[in-house]
Amino acid sequence: MNRSLIRCLLITAALVTPLALPGTASAEPAVAQPVLTPDKDPFYAPPPDLASYPNGAILGSRPSALYGLPLPIKVWQVQYKSTDAAERPTTGVTTVIVPDTPWTGPGTRPVVSYQMAEDGLGIQCASSYVMRAGVQAGLQNGQDQETPLTSLLLQRNWAVVVSDYEGPQERFYDRDQAAHSALDGIRAALAFGPAELSPASPVAAFGYSGGAFATVATMQRQPRYAPELNFTGFAAGGIPADMLAAFGLDNGTPNSGLGVFGLAALNRLYPEADILGQLDEPSRAAVATAATQCVQTVVNANKGRVLRDASGSPDIAGNPVIAAAANKQKLGSEVPGVPMYAWHSSLDDALPQPPTDALVDGYCAAGATVTYHRTDVAGHAQAAIAELPVMLDYLGERLAGAPLQTGCRHL
Fold first, then answer.
1. In sequence order, which ranges of 135-234 are alpha helices (DSSP H)?
2. Distances (CA, A) of 351 to 76, 209, 348, 381
3. Residues in CB range of 236: below 8 A, 6 or more apart
4. Per residue in 64-115, pLDDT tens?
5. How far apart are the first and last CA of the chain?
6. CA distances from 392 to 118, 308, 362, 386 (A)
7. pLDDT for 255-278, tens place per residue?
């Protein structure tokens, strides 16, 4: 992969939106007509006999492009069958990106499943739509910034798979939904003939922030849900390991919108809990407004907001109903079966580090192999960028089958 592709992608990212959170594309030319959102695009519609398909089955495909640019890579969107958190049949769409450069290494081309920070409650937040539409999608989630980072994976001649892991209902912070959809997206990509991959292809996974939540959830569930996939390792940074701890860090700060967004997500996941009823009127109105938005819109609209529960207390995490709902999605209930590279900054201004410490400690106590870097880079987005070179080398070693001492080590 040549440097001109990387430069083109990075320049495009700068034109699409300014960097806010760490967030590539085919021979299909840029098109003049608008790219339809998934709710209006017939490609996303499920077949009437959806339940009859096995998980990961390909339901449809089409050529695509990143930002509509004619780049020297091949890109497709592939619709597949999956199951939601309650094991009900649902669909997903994954974006499969393959370098034009032939694979000349041993075996088949490696694959990286990149869980971008989809962070959405509206269907317009789906990664497949944002990556295809580019500037037409407006300022959405981390995908605006993360899509160009795909070039770093493509430069190593790996294939990249980016799935809409929140599903058609955009179920943010739904651990099992994310895991099922991401794993079935990989299954579909490996079975998709034009990509020239293989069920035996070595696979790794990567995600940051909201994408890290999906990545960790995926790797926790993988041994039980998709044991046939040839996973070799994964990396996750800035992990939202505990929503309640994030409420405490963010409330009343420039990142207060993350708390608004988290509460809106819990309200969708657990309607029986009446999350809105736990809040005071201003907080309730903010959460209700966020119900169809993407995270960046919510953050921009709620800077400095102090969320309060119905009693007037700003200790949102102390509300027992909210705490019970959030704890149902806490990471760490299962242990990944392949090596993990994790990182988190002690100076993260959006997500606190101690819950990631606890998550890693739990994995290590259960016998997992983890390399953990407690970094001191200031800022959530900045910590993502600073760690990319080390993370890419780690994934490269795992995909190449390099030896790694088992157990845990801290950097």
1. 143-146, 150-154, 175-191, 210-225
2. 34, 8, 6, 11
3. 206, 207, 208, 212, 215, 216, 340, 341, 342
4. 998 878 888 999 999 999 999 999 999 999 999 999 999 999 999 999 999 9
5. 31
6. 21, 41, 25, 12
7. 999 999 999 999 999 999 999 999
> Minimal CA–CA distance to 70: which of 100, 32, 29?
29
Whole-number Cα distances in Å, 140 to 291, 300, 321, 327, 383: 14, 11, 30, 27, 21
Which sequence spans correspond to the domains of the chain?
3-233+337-410, 243-327
Residue 13 clears pLDDT 80, i.e. is over it? no
Burial classification of residue 156, based on how many CB atoms lie within 10 Å of its CB (0-12 exposed, 13-18 middle, 19 or more buried): middle
The class (CATH top level) of 3-233+337-410 is: alpha beta
Beta-bridge partner residues of 375? 345
The CATH code of the domain at 243-327 is 1.10.260
- Per-residue DSSP letters for 387-402? HHHHHHHHHHHHHTT-
| CA pair distance 126, 298, nearest whole angstrom | 16
CA dihedral over 27, 32, 37, 40, signed as positive or negative: negative
Radius of gyration of the chain measured on its C-alpha atoms: 20
Both tokens of residue 141?
């989630």
- Residue 291: left if φ>0, alpha if ψ -120 to 50, beta else—which one? alpha
Phi, psi of 400 (to 5 degrees): -85, -5
